[in-house]
Each structure stands twice: as C-alpha cells, then as structure tokens.
Amino acid sequence: MYAFDIECPTTIAEAAQALGGENQALSGGQTLIPTLKARLASPEKLVSLTAIAEMKGISSAGGVLSIGGATCHADVAADGSYKALSELAAHIGDPAVRNRGTIGGSVANNDPAACYPAAALASGATIVTNTREIAADDFFLGMFETALEEGEIVTAVKFPIPEKANYQKFVQPASRFALVGVFVAKTTDGVRVAVTGASNEGVHRWTAAEEALNASFAVSALDDLTVSADNLIADLHGSPEYRAHLIKVMTGRAVSAAS
Amino acid sequence: MTKVTMTINGKSVAGDVEGNTLLASFLRDDLHLTGTHIGCDTSQCGACVVHVDGRAVKSCTMFATEANGAEVATIEGQAAADGTLNVIQQAFQDHHGLQCGFCTPGMVMSTAALLKDNPKPTVTEVRTYLEGNICRCTGYHNIVKAIMAASGQDVSAIAAE
C-alpha cells in the first residue's frame, strides 16, 4: 500500500468536513482495502465511517425499512423484517466479510456484480446522503458509477417493503459475487425486476419482464421473452449469451420463490 | 503515527501505528502475536481471522486504527494460561483437523464464532460457515469432523464416509 493517513470521525458532520480533495471515504473496507493493497488507489487520507454511531442500525416505520449506511451485512441478515433483503445479505461473501462490509459501501461502489444494488433498484429504494435523498433509479449510473458527488456520504438506504420479493443469485464460486443475480419485487405500484452481474452498464431493470409480470405474476409470463446478449459482460466465467440465458432463468426462479 | 489502545485476549495494549498498518500487521509485527497468520493478504483465505468486539473478521482487511478501543481475541487467547487446549483446539488435534497447520488459527477462530451463534451446527452449516477459510492442504473432511466433535456431536457417521 502507498502511505496515507487515516481519520476515524464519530459524526457525519465531522466525516463530511474531513472528505474532499484526494481524501477517500472508507466503510467496511472489504473492497477498498484489497484495492489499496494492489496500489490501484492512492488517497492522501482515508476517512473511516465505521465509528459513526448515527450511521449504524436498522429501523422500520410505515412499511419502510431504513438501514444506516455503516450497517454491516451480518446485521441486515439477522434483521429479517424484509425477508428477501435479509436473505440476500446472508449470502454476500463469507461470514467475516459480512461482519465488516456495509450496505453504504456496497451501493456507493456499485460493483457491476454486487448484490445490494439489485435490491435497491428492484425495491425502489431511496439512497440517503449527508446532503440529499436520491431515488435508486437515478443513483446507479453504470459500472462503478453513481450519482454521488465527491465527498458525499451514503448515510442510509430506505427500502419500502414490497408485497412479495425474492433474490436469486447464480454464484461465481471463487468470488461469491453474482455471475448473474436477479431481484424481483412486487410492489403496490407494480413489479420491478433488477439484474446484477450481467451488464457492462452495471445493475439495470428488465422492463420487458416487469410488463409481463404486471399482467400475470407467474413464471409462465416470461415464456415468450428473450434477453438480448448485447452489451452483456464477457469474461472467463461466462459469455454474454450464457448470461442472457441466466437472466431469464434466475428471474423465473425469483418469481417462483417470491414471498 | 497514531496511538492506538485495545484489549487483546483480555490484556490492555497500546502502540503507535501508521495509517496503513493492518490489524494483522499490528498483531504480528508490533505485538509479536504471530499465531494470526497472513496467508493470501487479499481477503480470500481466512488464516488471519480474529474476533473484534466478538465478531469474526479478517485482520488483514481492517486497519489497526479502526480497532482502537476494541476487544480483540486471537488464537493466542484460546488455550488456558497453563497451555491446556480449549475444546475446539483439542478436537482439531484428536481428529487430525490440521495437516500443515497454516490455516488452523483462522479455522479455530471461525469455529469459535460459529459455535457461539450455533452450538450444534449441521455438517452443511459448518461447511457453509467456513466458506471464507481455505485449507491449502484440502483437509476439509477432518476439519468438519473436528468441529462436529467440538460441538459435542457424534462423529462416527462422518468417520465412516
């Protein structure tokens, strides 16, 4: 690693003040620390968010689950009030990773194969920062790209709990990231389907499936649909055509398992 | 340099660390607690697992500064002061749950975390929980057997497999 200073503020206000310039926010660090070790980043200073008590914890009010940005995956997994989300959290990485990695870090990084972005987009979640609230539809802009400004901190993610939901991940077994993951949520405003792991554009909605599932929330509603392989990820784990096939299969499984 | 203090295996310690000093490096290089191993240094292998405030974490993927004020438990604190192995360590010895032994500190610390939350895990639960601990000798069969024995379960069926 290159040399850098590290600061551990205890309030959001202090953290916001410490960020800016070449300073970098550090949440659970399960992606950032390996990146620093590989010398792929050289911040002057890391601003750790894990000592900020007001960014930790889970609360529920009026059918909306609010999760602090520095809340680790293990705590979301243990919560259970939004079952599909807790199940998703319980299958990120491994137990030690889940004890450090955070939801705020995951959505801010927007890895194209991460699980949380699919949940946020399918649920119609709101990303809360230290300065504003951003709808998930406007937040995820592409591979590793979000609407966050320099120095902006994800302080919470708010999930309206849907009527039914399920997440299906086809695991890339070495990394345990999604080779393809599909989150299906049936909300009062209609069905939303979000796909991760598959596209060069990162997490995205499959609107054709949403229309079909709005007409009939059944696996058979997907029968006539095909997924284009255009702009899907090609790597040694799978071709674009393979991923296109998996999107439909995993969507069907999620519809079937939704509860 | 930043001053950090933490409680390690019940003992208060202090030290000066650089911003980029990993918890694993602080334990090994500064405190000479070399039982915590660094296998891959890329967050994959789990040989460096310790407990921070009661939770299993990879000490190679956390900065020492972030553990300031925390309660840390390492493999050195698992046996009794007179050297008597704890039930997990004894089961690893009895059931040959280690070959070269390099991954064992992480395996034992992960097992301790598992059994705290789930005192009688199934074989599948053990294997799932250990997803983040890699044994390069591939001695998983006896590791699982040792953990089942450590949790007080009958391992005769596993032996027959």
What is the end-to-end distance of chain B? 54 Å
List SSEs of chain A in N-to-C order: EHEHEEEHHHHHEEHEEEEEEEHH
Largest beta sheet of chain B, briefly? 5 strands, mixed
In terms of structural class, how would the helical and strand content of chain B be classed? alpha+beta
Low-confidence stretches of chain A: none
CATH H-level superfamily title of the largest domain in chain B: Beta-grasp domain
Mean of the pLDDT scores of chain B? 95
| Biggest interchain interface, per-side counts | A-B, 28 and 27 residues
Architecture per CATH nomenclature, i.e. the level-2 architecture of the largest domain in chain A: 2-Layer Sandwich
* CATH architecture annotation of the largest domain in chain B: Roll
Distance between the first and last residues' Cα of chain A: 45 Å
What best-fitting shape of chain A do the alpha-carbon axes yield? globular
The share of residues in helices of chain A is 25-40%
**Count of structural domains of chain B:** 2
Strand order of the largest sheet of chain A: 4-5-10-6-7
Strand content of chain B: 15-25%
**Global morphology of chain B:** elongated
What is the CA-based Rg of chain A, rounded? Answer: 18 Å
Number of strands of chain A: 14
Task: Indicate the low-confidence ranges of chain B by residue numbers.
Answer: none
